[in-house]
Amino acid sequence: MKKILTILILCLFTSTSIAGIKWPWVRKEPAKPVPVKVEVKKEPATINNARQVIKELNSELQAAKQQNLKLKDNLDRANAKVVSAEKEVLIVKEAVEKLKEWGVVQQAEKFKWMEKYEKAVKRYHRLKMIAALIAAAAGVFLGLQLMNLVPPPYNVGVPVGGAILFSSLVWFIL
User: Fold this and answer.
1) Any domain includes 8
2) Is 141 a domain residue?
3) What is the pTM of this model?
4) pLDDT, tens digit, 9 for 90 and up, residues 67-101
């Protein structure tokens, strides 16, 4: 089967190369432009033709003058817009400077408040630890009182368990 398939592929390639079929991936040569000669009839120059040309030139000149006036008017309006835009840019720059100064002040205040907050958090955790230690001591004392109720191998764990229980309750509640 493989031999037949290879023979068919070989036949396909050889037949297409002999037939002169172009492969799709072969680059096509660009078309070359062909020069064309254009003949212009020259009419004899007459006064009427000259007058017609002068009229056309005058109409084009008038159109160009009107277009020039429109362009000048547009230029004047654009210059006025540029001047007003420059004024607005100056106003925006002043506002940006004020905003920048306000931001610096706000940042300084934020740092001041953050320092106070960090000190308060440290103080809070310190007091929380002290309260947990006091609760642990109370748990130990209560465990010592209840130690008589528990059999001997387990009675040592009662004060430790009471300390852990009371300190964890205080720690999680606060």
Assistant:
1) no
2) yes
3) 0.43
4) 999 999 999 999 999 999 999 999 999 999 999 99
